[in-house]
Design brief:
This protein is an alpha+beta fold. The chain has one domain (9-89): Orthogonal Bundle (Arc Repressor Mutant, subunit A). Helices cover 55% and strands 13% of the residues. It is built from five helices and three strands. A three-stranded antiparallel β-sheet has the order 1-3-2. Helix 1 packs antiparallel against helix 4. The longest helix has 16 residues, at 80-95. The protein is elongated and about 65 Å long.
Length: 105
């Protein structure tokens, strides 16, 4: 079975690069269960808002999370369709046939 992947290589690189940072991965893991406002994420991760804002921006630019404004707070949640595209991108390698290396001279 071949998986249809609609993710560009650039989008895949941005997504995997964003997930490569331990703090950003912690944010994604927290958002797995529910949405959180910035202040709650700061408390849960024991980081200052200025540091967390940088990482949230990176995750948003990679399209891994989305923000919803409610009053003066922004609530973040996972962008599940995009995460599923990353999953499908990796799954496409599982389905690819493995070819033997050619012989060297």
């Amino acid at each position: 079975m071949t998986t249809t992947v609609s993710l560009s290589q650039t989008e895949a690189i941005a997504g995997f690069r964003a997930l490569g940072d331990p703090l950003r991965l912690q944010v994604v893991e927290l958002l797995r269960d529910r949405e959180y406002c910035v202040c709650d994420l700061c408390d849960l991760l024991s980081v200052k808002q200025s540091k967390l804002s940088f990482h949230l921006k990176t995750l948003k630019e990679a399209n891994l999370i989305q923000g919803r404004q409610d009053g003066r707070w922004i609530y973040y949640s996972l962008n599940l369709p995009h995460l599923l595209q990353l999953q499908d991108y990796l799954a496409s390698y599982r389905d690819a046939p493995l070819r033997s290396a050619r012989h060297c001279c």
